[in-house]
Design a protein that fits this description.
Layout lengths: L9 E6 L2 H9 L8 E4 L8 E4 L1 H4 L9 H7 L4 E3 L3 H15 L6 E5 L2 E5 L10 H16 L3 E6 L2 H8 L7 E3 L5 H6 L11 H8 L6 H6 L2 H8 L2 H9 L15 E12 L2 H22 L3 E10 L4 E12 L2 H14 L7 E11 L19
Parallel strand pairs: 2-4, 7-8
Antiparallel strand pairs: 1-6, 1-7, 2-3, 5-6, 9-12, 10-11, 10-12
Length: 365
């Protein structure tokens, strides 16, 4: 790996089967049993999280719940409890901040930590990562995996390498060997379409792409070619950025099997609205603009947005807006591979709290 940037010590922590693990922790009768969190298998639900017992039967996130039941008939299906997951996420982040103030959450269940300078004055990242995982296990009774590397890209790849309860350390001198034989899809931003264009050049692995002519890559991939080759060479100078004042909150799902049915899409949107509502309550900031994102099977992406007359935070209002926006999109014969909801135009702290009806548990259908 060659880069002018100074060597950093980055940890990526990723909770293992987070939603399902929280459910197994909170109900000990579920431990050791296949648990699937998501929509109903009797309808058009989608898997949000699957325990490792369910994964051993082939169940994966974003899979139709009906297919998950066929693969794992003994599975226990549970509706998501986003408020519970949010509460646990706050406890996890409190543990992270004992070690460094440079914590960049990516979602409820994962974050980057820059421990180059840390609160314990520990010169090495590996013992810090071990300590963090031990604290999560002993204090929260939850499994987690971590990756340690000289940058965010390497740390995240490493955290995925040995799940669950794994710790993989990739020092700078091992980066090239770590990446060399990985398929090109492991690079950020390389989906099926981009991978196909790269393979037309005769490239299959990250190592091959790292050694390839940048000029030729640019002819095929444009300006993104340089960034992609930097990643292939283990170069990623992006800093770990603690969460700043939020401009929006969102959630999305990519599906293992494309959706065609309107009811199935509405079921997913209802779950996403629940997740976005919980995320907004975390920062206590409602918003006025709801945006729907839809990606078809041919990777064509369509977005629609509506600005509401009042600030909203409750799941019902977000869901209703998303349903309305879905109705505005002309649907083709192609299936839908991704759905997402985001809420922006958030209330500033100095805005008056006009019409701010926080969601109450009693409002649930």
């Amino acid at each position: 790996m060659t880069s002018a940037a100074p060597i950093r010590r980055i940890i990526h922590v990723d909770m293992d089967a987070f939603y399902a693990s929280v459910e197994q922790r909170d109900d000990p009768t579920l431990r050791g049993r296949p648990v699937i969190v998501g929509g109903s298998p009797d309808g058009r639900g989608v898997v949000a999280s699957a325990s490792y017992e369910a994964r051993s039967a082939g169940v994966r996130s974003a899979m139709p719940a009906s297919r998950a039941r066929r693969l794992c008939p003994a599975a226990i299906f549970l509706r998501p409890r986003f408020d519970a997951y949010l509460s646990v996420s706050r406890e996890i982040r409190a543990i992270f901040r004992r070690y460094t103030e440079l914590v960049e959450p990516l979602a409820l269940d994962e974050a980057y930590l820059d421990v180059t300078q840390n609160r314990l004055d520990e010169p090495y990242a590996t013992p810090l990562a071990r300590s963090i995982l031990a604290a999560i296990r002993s204090e929260l009774d939850l499994p987690a995996s971590a990756g340690v590397g000289p940058n965010k890209f390497i740390a995240k790849l490493a955290s995925d390498w040995d799940k669950p309860n794994g710790l993989v350390v990739v020092p700078p001198q091992r980066v090239e060997a770590f990446l060399r034989d990985m398929p090109i899809e492991r690079l950020w931003g390389v989906g099926p379409a981009t991978a196909g264009r790269i393979r037309e050049l005769g490239l299959e692995t990250i190592g091959e792409l790292a050694r390839f002519s940048l000029t030729t890559l640019e002819r095929v991939l444009g300006s993104y070619a340089r960034t992609l080759q930097d990643l292939a060479r283990g170069i990623d100078n992006r800093p770990v950025v603690p969460r700043r004042v939020a401009k929006s909150r969102g959630a999305e799902r990519t599906f293992a099997v494309d959706l065609f049915d309107l009811e199935a899409m509405q079921t997913v949107l209802a779950d996403l609205a629940d997740e976005v509502s919980s995320s907004l309550r975390e920062i206590e900031r409602p918003g006025r603009t709801v945006t729907l994102k839809l990606r078809f099977a041919d990777f064509r992406t369509v977005t629609r947005a509506v600005t509401l007359p009042r600030y909203v935070i409750e799941r019902e209002a977000i869901r209703a807006a998303a349903f309305e926006l879905l109705g505005r999109i002309e649907r083709s014969d192609l299936g839908v591979r991704l759905l997402g909801i985001s809420v922006s135009n958030l209330r500033r702290d100095d805005d008056p709290q006009l019409h701010f009806p926080f969601y109450e548990e009693g409002d649930v259908d």
